[in-house]
Specification:
Elements lengths: L5 H9 L17 H12 L7 E5 L17 H11 L5 E6 L2 H9 L2 E5 H6 L3 H12 L4 E3 L16 H7 L1 E5 L4 H7 L2 E5 L13 E6 L8 H13 L1 E11 L19 H6 L2 E15 L2 E14 L1
Parallel strand pairs: 1-2, 1-7, 2-6, 7-8
Antiparallel strand pairs: 3-5, 4-5, 8-10, 9-10
Helix pairs in contact: 1-9, 2-3
Length: about 300
């Protein structure tokens, strides 16, 4: 657009990437399922060589059942695409340098046995990953290079090792694709990173990210993503309202993003779900409204 929207121009003046980035970076193995499900159901039928953007991938597990420093989504998504012989391009953006370095250097994935017990679908997800990458499951009971725990896990490290930790290598072609540029890893703020030098995206996954940003940062981030998305491309976002000090996104939860601003960004809601979830918070349980929306570029 030749003349920037007034509210977006104001956001640009207000927003500054924080010098000290301190955000929750929890992630889980099943997060990639929402990417692969959308690829199969929505993207691949219309784009056989998709370009994918993953934003804010996380690297930390749960303090109790999976207290490992481990990133999953880029590897699980790549394994699924490789198994289907899909030619693709992938860009991964995270504001935390160490997360991008983890993806760049990681050789193996790890999951505690407790995680298998608490999340009933994880074992099936893990078996699919092994099948996609042509590997056998290996369970370790002692430390090895690459196995790193977060600070102050709920149980002793020995407890997790005694129970068993499942491990497998990253997809065989992943490192080669990073070298060739088919997979690009970027340490930057999604509100300000320049995405113009990459192919426009057919699918963007940006969940559990935007509520970390103030409203001005959300505006810039979504405008940045929308500008970099192909016509009919899809953007997956979610909103927890103001839970735990977060900033609401959708106007339904008190945020800035209404139908008019979506239209101004060239977006419409393709699919949307609104659910209520009980989340334990110390001695109490909060009831949180969650909106999960699939936005389409028009």
């Amino acid at each position: 657009m030749n003349c920037e929207l007034e509210w977006l121009a104001k956001a640009r003046k207000q927003y500054k990437t924080p010098d000290d980035v301190s955000v929750r970076a929890e992630t889980n193995f099943g997060r990639a399922n929402q990417v692969t499900e959308l690829l199969e159901r929505k993207t691949l039928p219309v784009s056989s060589q998709p370009s994918i953007l993953l934003v804010g991938i996380g690297s930390l597990g749960d303090h109790f059942i999976n207290p490992l420093r481990c990133t999953y989504t880029p590897f699980v998504t790549a394994a699924w695409l490789d198994a289907k012989n899909v030619q693709y391009r992938m860009v991964v953006v995270d504001i935390i340098d160490s997360i991008i370095e983890d993806v760049r250097k990681r050789e193996r994935l790890y999951l505690t046995h407790f995680y298998f017990e608490d999340y009933v679908y994880t074992e099936d997800d893990w078996k699919r990953y092994l099948a996609h990458t042509g590997q056998q499951d290996r369970v370790i009971n002692s430390r090895e290079d690459g196995l790193v725990f977060i600070d102050h896990p709920e149980l002793s490290i020995e407890s997790y090792l005694q129970s068993g930790i499942h491990t497998a290598g990253i997809p065989r072609q992943f490192r080669d694709k990073v070298q060739s540029g088919e997979i690009t890893l970027i340490s930057d703020d999604i509100a300000e990173v320049d995405l113009n030098c990459y192919s426009k995206f057919d699918l963007v996954e940006c969940t559990n990210v935007l509520y970390h940003l103030p409203a001005a940062g959300q505006m810039l981030a979504l405008a940045n993503i929308a500008h970099a998305t192909n016509k009919n491309g899809l953007i997956l976002v979610n909103d927890f309202g103001d839970y735990n000090g977060g900033t609401p996104l959708f106007s339904e939860l008190g945020g800035w993003l209404n139908k008019e601003r979506l239209k101004q960004l060239g977006l419409v809601v393709d699919e949307s779900t609104e659910t209520q979830e009980e989340i334990p918070d110390g001695r109490y349980t909060d009831v949180v409204t969650i909106i999960r929306a699939l936005l389409k570029k028009i």
